[in-house]
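Justification of resources, computational component.

The compute hours requested in this renewal are based largely on the per-chain cost of generating structure records like the one below. Each record pairs the submitted sequence with a full structure-token output. That output is archived, and it is also reused by downstream analysis tasks.
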Amino acid sequence: MEKLNYEVLKKSGYDGYILEQAPEKVLQFGEGNFLRAFANYWFDVSNEKAGWNGKCVLVQPIRPGLAQLINEQQGLYTLYLRGRENGEKVDRKRVISCVSRCLNPYEEADYAAMMELARSESLEYVVSNTTEAGIVYDPACQLTDRPADSFPGKLTQVLLERWVAGRPGLVILSCELIDNNGKELLKCVNQYIEQWGLDPDFRRWVNEDCTFCSTLVDRIVPGRIRDPEEVARLEQANGYADPLLDVGEVFGVWNIEGPAWLEEKLPFKAAGLNCPVVPDVTPYKKRKVRILNGAHTGFVLGAYLAGFNIVRECMENPTVLGFMNKMLYNEVIPTLPLDKKDLTDFAAAVQDRFNNPFVNHELMSISLNSTSKWRARDLPSFEEYVALKGELPKCLTASFAAYIAFYSSDVQALTDAGLVCRRPAGNEYTVNDDRFVLEFYYEHRNDDAETLVAAVMRDERMWGKDLSAIPGFEAAVVKLLKQLRAEGALAVYASCLEG
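The structure output for this chain reads:
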């Protein structure tokens, strides 16, 4: 079967939106599955819905990459957005046509092409997702490198080329999964300006004429379809082969921290897309961590002990679903600073996302490092609820008891792979966490409930504080842990729904 390109696409009978020619307005560092299902999707829809009329030039941030394959397909690839929306199953196909080409800057011709684009009048944006390790300052990088090895070094070279050409500043949208990604990127660029002894006027241009935006990205992107039978079926239905085929969930939001004028400049608002420009992304990060991530950590450990294996199964059980929703709506949302409708809408979307019929998200994969996860995702909601209401939150308290139960369920052994436990159904499972946590639970494997809970709560290395100081918390967790061991996690979750 022929590989996707514009000619093959026309022969296939595809009748969706396609834009073949447009000015190159985006320089994008990162050509992997995530950005192609996220940022490129937003720009592609903006072409269709807002008449943005722009193309994205992708750049391999490291030597091995997809440039050759992307160029063979003339930038085209098929994107499937799959999941649930308002409770309904969704499976949407779209051929993305906003990508014009992909550059490998480690080849001399492509490095020159990157610099030519830097001087271009049409260029407006830089987008990046170079992994968490991408935004780092490496003093080994030199201005004369072609290219600098680090992403911030490459970006400094691009910006310098643009400034020398007398072009206006760019908007830089960082998507790396680190706090204050835009600010950290600008910090690295300024370090290179200092190290390389560049013109003070260039420094002023970078810091005043360019707009470095911290952003918060939220879309699960499974990426490639690995089932060869499904790949064959899709190729037959599409009428072409597509090695670049990408898959993401339906839900997506791109919170962009920037000045008010940026919302009108970016094409997303006019296209009706969920990409708001906000003065500070911090509350939205808190929303994601406390609601989306906090929900996962809050219910999965007890659910696993109750016999569930994947998230979707949990959403199909009224007790587990009810427990999660009560935790989110009654205990977490009241502690968050954003508009209540915004928070409840986000929480409603979480239920759809967890009930995705196309994703088998295993509870054991979510269970990794649950001690630090509970501390970061659930403990802040717990403490703020206590401060706000003057009482313990039922579901979050039960969640903590389930956490202890998961780490202490019929402990069998401590191995190099982790802490081997056995759930009530009889099968063994391996807990993965920091070594000191695993050693702690192994040492306390024969403790009764009172002794174990007391030891866990007083371990400040785990929690950064003595949790037994919270009035009534220790006694409540002991009671719940005993109930969980005697009656099962579902019984504990059900008891939280009473009253």
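The first strand starts at residue 24 and ends at 29. The chain has a mean pLDDT of 97.
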